[in-house]
Amino acid sequence: MIGGMDDAAGKRGGRRALIGSVVFGLLLSVIYVLSSAPARQMTTSGNLNKDVCQTIYAPLIWLHNHSDVAASALDRYWRWWSRG
């Protein structure tokens, strides 16, 4: 027993922290992708600098340009969002 915790409790806490970190990372990734449509719309309307948008979304733009599946999904999402 170290610091009042037995090994099993320490392992459970470590597992919870790992799962929490993975869920948090996935949630941030989803928010990042979903935020691309409003950013794209703001860039088109002149409310957001194009260079800033291209810098922030460079990984997503790269994926769009190098994956037919990602390009198709992103194009559909962007079209759907712009119809709003």
In round numbers, the mean pLDDT is 89
| Percent range of helical residues | over 70%
Q: List the uncertain runs.
A: none
Q: What's the Cα radius of gyration?
A: 20 Å
Major beta-sheet overview = none
- Quaternary structure classification: single chain
Shape: elongated
Q: How many angstroms separate the termini? A: 58 Å
How many structural domains?
2
Give the count of helical stretches: 5
Derived from helix and strand composition plus strand pairing, the structural class reads mainly alpha
The helix/strand order is: HHHHH
**Count of extended strands:** 0
Strand content: under 5%
What this model shows, in words?
By secondary structure, the chain is mostly helical. The protein has two domains: 1-34; 36-84, no CATH class. It has five helices and no strands. Helix 2 packs across helix 5 and helix 4 (58-66) packs across helix 5 (68-83). The mean pLDDT is 89.
Task: Please provide a brief summary of the model.
With 84 residues, the chain is mainly alpha-helical. Helix content is 82%, strand content 0%.
What's the arrangement of secondary structure elements?
Blueprint: H1 7-34, H2 36-44, H3 50-56, H4 58-66, H5 68-83
Task: List its salient traits.
elongated, mainly alpha, 5 helices, 2 domains, 84 residues
